[in-house]
Amino acid sequence: MRGEFIDLDGARLYCYAAGTAGGGEPVVFIHGFPASSHLWSGVVPLLPDGRRLVVVDLLGYGRSDRPDRRDVSIPGHGARTLALLDALGINYACIVGHDVGGGIAQWLAVHAPTRVSKLCLVSSVGFDCWPARDVKLARATLPLTRYLPPLWLLSVLRTDLLRGYTDRGRGIHSIEQYVRPFASAEGRDAFIAHMTALDSRDTTALAPRLPHVVAPTAILHGAHDPFLSKVIAERLRTAIPGATLDVLPDARHFLPEESPERVAAAITTLLAR
């Protein structure tokens, strides 16, 4: 795998490439809040050869630069992803998004349909059914919590994120990687910027245009996701013409980590459509 930083208007995004360029369209993986490219590490090796696979750390996450007042809403990340595709010389790709990354993938399919050959939404946000109650509560207390020590905030975040895993040991390992960029005062400010930008109005605005999505679409969701109801997945399947839905029993939120074989198989099937 080859990692590199791409400068986009003065902010660097980290991404890595795997696979080999071949006859098929590339696959681009977009994580959600508050994860990073690590989310896809179990899925990427399971995909068939002959395709360029690109995994990105969104601005403010993982190894990418902090936002520094740049737009980290779904439209902001969407426009930045288009710029990344341009910088990498990718004309169109299969876009795979998890959580808020699923909202970014929807934005791309609606606003840049010629750039999205296939669409895969994994544990995706959608419509007006998010963010979770805990996030709404945390945002309501921001006048106080924005000044609290970063380590205190991260301890609360760790506890909450663990609910999204079936395997507690796996969750603890991954969460430590996800929260590392937020462990300083500057990181705390970046985390708060991300949390403030979680806005269901972004996906509500996309909803009327989902019936016009032309990319073949696969949707996956965990039956016991504590953050995002499977109602979102069902509504997405109804809204997007020809979309398929696979609800994974006994699964929670972080499907790419805990069910990488199922996610990779769904992407492989989608690529053949």
Describe the structure.
There is one protein chain. Helix 1 (74-88) packs across helix 2 (100-111) and helix 5 (150-161) runs antiparallel to helix 6. The chain has helices at residues 74-88, 100-111, 133-140, 142-145, 150-161, 168-179, 185-196, 200-206, 230-239, 255-258, 260-271, and strands at residues 2-8, 11-19, 27-30, 52-57, 93-99, 116-124, 217-222, 244-248. The chain has an eight-stranded mixed β-sheet with strand order 1-2-4-3-5-6-7-8, sandwiched between helices. The chain has eleven helices and eight strands. By secondary structure, the protein is α/β, with parallel strands linked by helices. It has one domain (2-131, 200-271): Alpha/Beta hydrolase fold, catalytic domain (Rossmann fold). A hairpin with a 2-residue loop joins strand 1 and strand 2 (11-19). The longest helix has 15 residues, at 74-88.
Report the total helices. Answer: 11
Mean pLDDT: 93
Name the CATH homologous superfamily: Alpha/Beta hydrolase fold, catalytic domain
Categorize the overall geometry. Answer: globular
Sequence of strands across the biggest β-sheet: 1-2-4-3-5-6-7-8
Structural class determined from secondary elements = alpha/beta
CATH-defined fold name = Rossmann fold
Q: Could you give the count of β-strands?
A: 8
Q: In the residues, how many domains can be counted?
A: 1
Q: How far is the N terminus from the C terminus?
A: 27 Å
The radius of gyration computed from the alpha-carbon positions, rounded to a whole number of angstroms, is 17 Å
Major beta sheet summary? 8 strands, mixed
The appropriate CATH architecture is 3-Layer(aba) Sandwich
Spans of at least 5 consecutive residues whose pLDDT stays below 50 are none
The CATH class:
Alpha Beta
Helix content: 25-40%
